[in-house]
From TrEMBL:
Residues 54-92, 1133-1153 are annotated as: Disordered. Residues 54-63 have a biased composition (Basic and acidic residues). The keyword Cell inner membrane does not apply. It comes from Pediococcus pentosaceus CGMCC 7049. Residues 1135-1147 have a biased composition (Basic residues). This is LPXTG cell wall anchor domain-containing protein. Keywords: Cell wall, Membrane, Peptidoglycan-anchor, Secreted, Signal, Transmembrane, Transmembrane helix. The keyword Transmembrane applies.
Length: 1220
């Protein structure tokens, strides 16, 4: 920490980060000497000359030593540093709203910023001595750029570093031109979101251009839609980055909460909703059908994202803005007035929109999004960036996280400039959560952390807590009890009992007060061991064993078991067996008390089985019943029975019968019959009533022999033999056969032959009974063939029909025919025709024709109707000669000649050819050149029919290049189009362009300000102001956008002249002359000087002859290093004043004699050096000066002071030379 009072300068500064709210002046009253010093000063806050508030400020004091040379050196170093601090902190801002009573002024250095910190109590209220203070007035200039503002500049080169691309805008940025495509087709939504944070307490500005597209048409099933939609919206919002509103008529603004923005709307929205994909494009705000189309307006949204159009800001836009061209747009925000202004350039002039917006002073960080969307109309909408300048602000989040629930309990948001310390500590919040029962896990925020310099990424800090836990224990037990009793309920043995103990840890959440129960833990295990029931003679324990019970937990019920002792029960078993089947028929289980005899007898059961058909085999059951004489021995008794069987004989026969019949069903021969006999024994089971059969025995054998069918003359038996049948058994069915006798059938065949072809034409199959004559005749068939064109050659078939006189002999008859032939003469002509046509179908010349004649003999077959042609005989030859196509100027034939056609005969088709004459196609080429870069821009290939004129004109392409910033140099292409009048010659044309240039001027000014103050801070004389103006020419390449800067030219010269401090009666100015500053250029910082007037001291008289009292004042001035000039001026003046004042009555004139010791050391970059001079004494007379000379005044006293300065310097130099 640097205390300026330690340097001999009591300068105090007030600083607050909120520059936009500053509107008042803070002034600190400080004091020169101990007599007038107060222990507490007043900080006055004034507005328009009226004091609005006074705040107490503690005085900082230091005692100075003047004896040590080393201290003087340190003071000079501190003085230089204080000077730099002074210059950087002048014209700083005070926000009176943030200054509270009880706060004191403290010069704490945090990046050269003086802060106001809470005042501590001071016990020392006594006399403070040896303290120097110089009054300082803090002037409010909200719009000045200071080191507190972190200005960021964005252009096309770093655009992608500061913007996210979303939707149809993604991947559609051109870094060369700065163009950002937002939409290019139907049903698209594209936007870019700003990554950085804008501090709305400072100005910002965006320069660029927008392209709203042009009207398009789309046809659907109902009608043709035409228009342009939807427009471009710009929305500013706080909270989180990358917010995007609704698409469609929402234009990316509606839907964002607590936002403001501007839109250029090209489509009316009347509040309707419609479905698009999975998104409903519902209008989330005020409809705009009442406004002109297109229009622009300011828009705001509420906390629910519902949008409202500011009616006062609505401005109609000219329809011609929808021209698919870029139109310049400027977005300007003025922090002092909180006014957001949009200037949109249109073909009819600039349209201005403006509105004031109240931002959230607690969170001045805002982000913005530029969005556009389309509906069914495919509209191309673009944004182009030129430049953006804003003041960045950093944002940090301190998140307080409950690790138990994983939720944020609280989020603290801090904002500030990069590099500035975060005025926040987590200690209070941590203490608050500790009181609520939390335990701190981790805290990665360190007090004194500074904001980083990347406003595109927030700083995240986390403070993690877990719930505090208080532990306790809970206990339970589970009991096992076993009772031993007789079956009559009497106690048999003492009760058995065992116990298992459990306990669990109970943790109480000190935050939620919820109890968390841990798992139960077994103290004595989780099993009851098995318990064997004690033995009692003559009784059986039920159960004999209580099994081990495992997996016992704390929730298990108490276990209670009863063991009952019963007298032993003896048993016996009676089994009945079927010896025939080997199966057990039944069994009887018997039981009774030990030593008793059972009442059961087997007689009734045996009688039952006899009635079922059984016979008794054996029975070992005691006749007087089973005796239970042995304990736990089960006696088993068996009774055996078998089935009773009765036998008898059974017979069977199998027959063979053959019937002999004519084919009409009449009996032809007597029936033939044969029989085979069989027999067997049958046994009947009286239990199951099942029969058991013996094997069949054949009496006469097991085969029927073969039987030959008897012969009948003139008939054939079918079959001729009935074959033998072997392996006949009793189960074989009776055999019955039929033999049929059929009369014999005789056959004949008639064949028709074609002697011309040697092929059989047809044949006729005949049959009939033996000895009969067939009714078939050949006459009808022969007549049929004659009608077909045949002639009869021979016929050997009997005229009265075929006679079937020979048994089983097939007679064959043949009829031969031949084709009837007629001869005739045939002639033929083959033509060659050539047509000459233009490509439009019109005749190009006379038709060419030629002919060849031929003859031949034709033989006509009357059967096949086939003509047999003889060879053609040529009358005029057998070829067409070559025919050359005639020449037509300006046309090219598709065929240069019709070649010779050989081997023509009478069967050749007529030859018809067409020669088409096509008009010649001529070509031309237009090339566009950039004369500035000497590169070819593009070329256009042209073509057209011979002696036609091309419709292409260069004016559209030239206009496109002009729109891109070019200027036309030359164009040798014909204005009415190229005329293709030279066959097969490519005409070449050139269009030359150059980069257009825009001239502009840039201006700067370097100011010199001199403040004149008394040592108590009061204004002594009006402030002296002067400035030097500079300007330079800026040439802007309209194609590339590149700027070419000229040299800065001084308008008012390059020197600030020396300024003599005005003389005020009774005061001495320090310094007396503000020296001239030469070689000022446009990059020189503004020069600010302060001249302090110190009151002259008078000698005190005590008793008439008291000695004089003197007060020595040590004033250390500063060292200035200019960062841009490379010039270092090291000036040190050590004034030791001896003031002798006599009482006088004339206050108009005071003479003061003092000695001044000068020490001047100046080092110039060029190497010039002014050597150190020995001290000299000078005597001067101070006269009262009425008024400080002002810039531009023309008074005679101004000349006097300008004359005084060189005289004073000359006098000093002469004195130095004399001493040497």
């Amino acid at each position: 920490m640097i205390n300026l009072a330690m340097l001999g300068l009591g300068m105090s500064y007030l600083q607050h980060a909120d520059a936009a709210q500053a509107s008042e002046i803070g002034k600190v009253n400080t004091y020169k000497n101990a007599d007038s010093l107060k222990t507490n000063q007043l900080l006055e806050l004034t507005k328009n000359g009226k004091t609005t508030k006074e705040v107490g400020v503690d005085v900082k004091t230091e005692t100075h030593s003047q004896a040590s040379k080393s201290n003087d050196t340190n003071k000079r170093a501190d003085s230089n540093q204080a000077s730099r601090l002074l210059k950087k902190n002048q014209n700083r801002i005070v926000d009176p709203k943030t200054i509270k009573d009880g706060w004191s002024l403290k010069n704490t250095k945090v990046k050269n910023r003086a802060l106001i910190t809470p005042k501590k109590s001071h016990e020392n209220q006594g006399t403070i001595k040896n303290t120097n203070f110089i009054n300082s007035e803090i002037k409010v200039k909200p719009n000045d750029k200071t080191d507190l503002q972190d200005n960021v500049y964005v252009n096309k080169d770093n655009f992608k570093d500061y913007f996210n691309q979303n939707g149809s805008a993604k991947g559609n940025y051109n870094p060369i031109t700065g163009e950002q495509k937002l939409t290019t087709g139907s049903w698209q939504s594209g936007n870019i979101t700003f990554k950085g944070g804008i501090d709305l307490r400072h100005n910002f500005r965006i320069d660029g251009a927008i392209n709203l597209g042009k009207e398009t048409k789309v046809r659907n099933v109902f009608r043709v839609l035409k228009g342009i939609a939807d427009g471009i919206g710009i929305v500013f919002y706080k909270g989180t980055r990358n917010q995007i509103g609704g698409s469609g008529g929402n234009l990316g603004i509606y839907g964002v909460t607590n936002a403001f923005g501007w839109k250029a709307d090209t489509w009316h929205n009347v509040g309707r909703s419609f479905k698009f994909g999975n998104t409903t494009r519902r209008l989330q705000g005020e409809a705009d059908d009442a406004f002109p189309d297109p229009y622009g307006a300011m828009v705001t949204t509420n906390k629910n994202g519902q949008g409202t159009i500011d009616k006062d800001s609505v401005r109609p836009l000219p329809k011609i803005i929808e021209d698919n061209k870029y139109h310049a747009i400027k977005m300007i925000y003025t922090a002092r007035t909180k006014e957001f202004k949009v200037i949109l350039s249109t073909p009819t002039g600039d349209v201005i929109f403006k509105k004031k917006f109240d931002y959230d002073a607690k969170d001045p960080v805002y982000y913005f999004t530029i969005a556009s969307s389309t509906g069914v109309l495919p509209t191309k909408q673009f944004f182009k960036i030129d430049s953006m300048e804003y003041t960045s602000i950093q944002k940090a989040f301190i998140k307080y996280i409950d690790d138990n629930t994983g939720t944020n309990m609280r989020v603290r948001v801090l904002t500030g400039q990069g590099g500035k310390t975060m005025k926040y500590s987590t200690r209070a919040d941590i203490q608050d959560y500790l009181k609520q029962g939390y335990q701190l896990v981790s805290d990665n925020f360190v007090t004194g952390t500074t904001f980083d310099t990347d406003d595109r990424t927030d700083q995240i800090y986390e403070v993690h807590f877990k719930h505090g836990i208080e532990s306790d224990f809970e206990k339970r037990n589970v009991k096992e009890t076993v009772h031993y009793r007789y079956d009559n309920g009497q106690l048999a043995r003492p009760i058995y009992q065992n116990v298992l103990n459990f306990e669990r840890k109970v943790e109480t959440d000190q935050v939620t007060k919820q109890r968390n129960y841990k798992n139960w833990q077994a103290v004595d295990g989780t099993s009851f061991k098995r318990v064997v029931s004690p033995y009692i003679k003559g009784y059986t324990a039920i159960p004999k064993l209580i099994d081990e019970i495992t997996n016992i937990n704390e929730n298990h019920k108490n276990i209670e078991k009863i063991v009952v002792y019963k007298a032993n029960d003896e048993k016996a078993q009676v089994k009945y067996f079927d010896d025939t089947t080997g199966r057990k028929l039944s069994e009887q289980f018997l039981h009774g008390a030990y030593g008793s005899r059972d009442v059961y007898r087997t007689a009734n059961t045996i009688q039952h089985y006899k009635q079922m058909g059984y016979e008794l085999v054996s029975d070992d059951y005691p006749k007087n019943g089973a005796n239970y004489s042995k304990d736990k021995l089960v006696r088993v008794y068996e009774i055996h029975l078998k089935h009773k069987i009765i036998e008898q004989s059974e017979k069977s026969t199998v027959k063979e019968v053959i019937h002999y019949l004519y084919d009409n069903g009449h009996l032809a021969k007597p029936v033939y019959e044969s029989v085979l006999n069989f027999s067997r024994m049958v046994g009947i089971d009286q239990v199951t009533e099942k029969k058991y059969y013996g094997n069949w025995q054949a009496t006469e054998g097991t085969s029927f022999k073969k039987v030959v069918s008897p012969k009948i003359e003139g008939y054939t038996a079918l079959p001729k033999v009935v074959v033998a049948v072997n392996n006949i058994n009793v189960n074989h069915a009776n055999i019955e056969k039929i033999v049929v006798y059929k009369a014999n059938d005789e056959k004949a065949q008639v064949k028709y032959f074609d002697d011309t072809t040697g092929r059989k034409l047809s044949e006729q199959f005949l049959h009939g009974a033996y000895g009969s004559r067939d009714v078939y005749r050949t006459a009808n068939t022969i007549q049929h063939y004659k009608q077909m064109g045949y002639e009869l050659v021979s016929d050997d078939y009997p005229k009265n029909g075929a006679n079937y006189s020979q048994d089983k002999l097939v007679r064959v008859y043949e009829i031969h025919l031949k084709h009837k032939i007629i001869k005739q003469l045939e002639k033929s002509t083959v033509k060659e025709v050539i047509h000459y046509l233009y490509d439009n179908g019109q005749p190009a010349g006379p038709i060419y024709e030629n002919e060849l004649d031929f003859k031949r003999i034709i033989k006509f077959d009357q059967v096949t109707k086939q003509k047999r042609y003889g060879n053609w005989q040529a009358i005029d030859g057998t070829y067409f000669k070559k025919v050359d196509s005639p020449k037509i100027i300006g046309y090219t034939p598709t065929l240069e000649a019709i070649e010779t056609i050989n081997n023509i005969d009478g069967s050749h088709k007529d030859i018809e050819e067409t020669v088409v004459y096509k008009i010649n196609d001529e070509k031309a080429q237009v090339t566009y050149y950039d004369d500035t870069t000497r590169k070819k821009l593009s070329e256009k290939e042209l073509n057209g029919a011979y002696r036609t004129r091309d419709s292409y004109r260069t004016v559209d392409a030239i206009n496109q290049y002009k729109w891109a910033g070019y200027e036309l140099v030359s164009d040798d292409y014909p204005q009415n189009g190229v005329f293709y009048d030279q066959d097969k010659l490519i005409k070449m044309y050139e269009v030359h362009l150059k980069h257009g240039e825009k001239m502009d001027f840039e201006q700067r000014a370097v100011k010199e300000v001199i403040y004149y103050q008394y040592d108590d801070g009061q204004l002594a004389e009006p402030t002296y102001k002067n400035k030097l103006s500079f300007r330079r020419i800026v040439k802007i390449d309209q194609v590339t956008g590149q700027k070419y800067y000229g040299v800065w030219q001084a308008v008012d010269g390059t020197n600030f002249r020396s300024v003599v401090s005005p003389i005020i009666e009774g005061y001495t100015p320090i310094p007396e002359i503000v020296r001239a500053i030469n070689n000022i250029n446009s990059y020189h910082q503004d020069v600010e000087k302060t001249v302090v007037y110190q009151a002259n001291k008078q000698n005190e008289v005590v008793g008439g002859n008291s000695p004089k009292k003197f007060k020595q004042i040590k004033i250390i001035l500063v060292r200035v290093i200019h960062p841009n000039r490379g010039v270092r001026i090291n000036t040190e003046k050590s004034h030791t004043k001896k003031i002798s004042l006599k009482p006088h009555h004339d206050r108009q004139k005071v003479e003061s004699t003092h000695k001044t010791k000068f020490k001047l050391n100046t080092l110039i970059k060029s190497g010039d050096e002014i050597k150190k001079q020995n001290p000299v004494c000078q005597k001067r007379v101070i006269k009262k000066y009425q008024k400080l000379p002002q810039t531009g005044e023309k008074k005679s006293n101004k000349f006097v002071y300008f004359l005084l300065v060189p005289l004073l310097i000359l006098s000093t130099i002469i004195t130095i030379l004399k001493r040497k």
